[in-house]
Amino acid sequence: MQANVMTLDAATAGTIELSDTIFGLEPRSDLIHRMVRYQTLKRMAGTHHAQDRSEVNVTGKKMYKQKGTGSARHGDKSVPQWRGGGKAFGPKPRSHAIELPKKVRALALKHALSAKAKAGEIVVIDKAVVADGKTKGLKASFAKLEFKNVLIIDGADLEPGFARAARNLPNIDVLPVQGINVYDILRRKKLVLTRAAVEALEARFK
Predict the structure, then answer these.
(1) Residue 165 pLDDT > 90, yes or no?
(2) Average pLDDT over residues 91-101
(3) Residues 31, 128: one domain?
(4) Interatomic CA distance for residues 81 and 15, integer angstroms
(5) In 66-172, which residue ranges form alpha helices assigned H by DSSP?
(6) pTM of the complete model
(7) Are residues 81 and 28 in the same domain?
(8) Total structural domains in the chain?
């Protein structure tokens, strides 16, 4: 498919051919959902911890004698039914990560890119470079292009001035092509690719 290439000054810089095997698939929401779940579970810390009855700091003495009180039989205060006792079946530190085959992860990325292309939410720019590295100038350029909530993907190396200028702008994410992922693509309204990013993606999925 053909896509127009823009500059940061909102001028036309020709066209580029986007591969149908990457940007022209019929999006499958099930694959995309599986990948988002994989990413979000993988980054969970899993450090939650509740004390069980062997860990709480209470006396181990029997509360009162076994018989003759008219009350139920009880031992020490560490059991879950008493305040200050240990929690039964509470959370313990663990990994929440799930497995997802590498080929499925790659396919999910293609479907996320295709979903953005089908929705008309992909913009291709010539290059992501700012001469002075100033946020003010980049903000003005984004206003011309109507970039309010975007993920910008550049080539293997980000231009330091552009990355520095963009990091102060809200709802603007800038990543090298190695960091492209399904969750961040869906999190932003538009996906902005440079020529270098398109070439790198096509080489990656060749």
Answers:
(1) yes
(2) 97
(3) yes
(4) 70
(5) 102-118, 135-145, 160-166
(6) 0.85
(7) no
(8) 2
Domain ranges, residue 156: 2-44+98-204
74: CB partners within 8 A, 6+ apart: 62, 63, 64
Q: What angle do CA 2, 156, 106 make, to 5 degrees?
A: 65
Decide: helix, strand or coil at residue 12: strand
Rounded to a whole number of angstroms, the CA Rg of the chain reads: 27
Same domain, 74 and 90: yes
Residue with the two structure tokens 């993907």? 153
Same domain for 179 and 144: yes
Compute the half-sphere exposure of residue 141: CA atoms within 13 Å on the CB side of its CA. Answer: 22
Q: How many CA atoms lie within 13 A of 175 on its CB side?
A: 16
Q: What is the average pLDDT across 116-133?
A: 93
Q: Structure tokens of 86?
A: 């240990």
Q: Which of 95, 112, 129 corresponds to the end of one domain?
A: 95
Q: Are residues 117 and 177 in the same domain?
A: yes
* Residues 83 and 107 reside in one and the same domain: no
What distance in Å separates the CA atoms of residue 29 and residue 8, rounded to the nearest whole number?
A: 32
Q: What CA–CA distance (Å, rounded) separates 116 from 119?
A: 5
Same structural domain, 180 and 85: no
Quick one: 57 and 115 in the same domain? no
Is the pLDDT at 38 greater than 90? The verdict is yes
Confidence label for 133 from pLDDT (cuts 50, 70 and 90): confident
Q: How far apart are the first and last CA of the chain?
A: 16
Q: Which residue type occupies 6?
A: M
